[in-house]
Amino acid sequence: MYRFPIGVMVDSFRTDFVTAVTKASQLGAEGLQMYCTKGDFAPENMTTAKTAEVLNIVKSRGLKFSAICGDLGHGFGNRAENAENVEKSKRIMELAKMLECDIVTTHIGVVPEDKNAERYQIMQEACFELASFADSLNSHFAIETGPETAKTLKIFLDGLGSKGVAVNLDPANLVMVTGDDPVQAVYTLKDYIVHTHAKDGIKLKESNPEFIYRVVHPIPPEYTEGGFFREVPLGAGTVPFPEYLAALEDIGYEGFLTIERECGDNPARDIKIAVDYLKELTGSDKK
What we know:
The chain has a single domain (6-286), classed as Divalent-metal-dependent TIM barrel enzymes (TIM Barrel). Strand 2 (31-35), helix 2 (48-59) and strand 3 (64-69) form a beta-alpha-beta unit. It is globular. The chain has helices at 17-26, 48-59, 79-98, 118-137, 150-158, 171-178, 182-188, 209-212, 241-250, 267-282; strands at residues 6-9, 31-35, 64-69, 103-106, 140-144, 165-169, 193-198, 200-203, 229-232, 257-259. By secondary structure, it is an alpha/beta fold. The protein has ten helices and ten strands. This is Sugar phosphate isomerase/epimerase. GO terms for molecular function: isomerase activity. InterPro entries: IolE/XylAMocC-like (IPR050312), Xyl_isomerase-like_sf (IPR036237), Xyl_isomerase-like_TIM-brl (IPR013022). Keywords: Isomerase. Pfam families: AP_endonuc_2.
């Protein structure tokens, strides 16, 4: 039976930091992921004393950071914005190290299938710089799956010649947006996976990821109304979790399954359902 440590996204509780950390510990989680992009936890606001305080709150409850979320919401497809966003991303990676964490996750935009596309080259330039910086810290800047197929992402990553930029595999994003098979994605991206999200969802109708992720304008009116996919509690969607976890075990993955719940009116309940579901699947509820 496979055994993966379970993490929880702090922000998914939609409450204050201390309460969220406490709840995660009470649910039996082992790790945490949190956003460090703006507000109190942005690098420019995290003094040495505050960083130590945050780390103490986490460790005193028997937890550790599985990853830090560094998604700035812009991607790296605009050369004019990349200098600022790359520097911000570097500061987040440095903060993660201070929080005793080697993984920062993000969305980089939508990787075009055409390697000769200008946006592809712009994104590669930014990611090459970020990969080099991550390597210098012995860290990983991990791209979250979903906006493009696993095959397209692998080709993009292979072109960087580094594992500094790696993969945060989110199986729900794959089934909801691209319709990609998350089990096959594990094997396709096996050399790059350093973190995973435990999330579930359902694809409702076909869509263009470039409009979903707002990287090509103008956005057609129907995309402002949504309705292309629905995130659901773990086990209620189309992610085949038993097969997905078996594939992760097969490739030798030993990292976290970090629960992310971005919607729903009772996140604490849904997170508990997810923790219990994963423990049942992995057999850790019997240990």
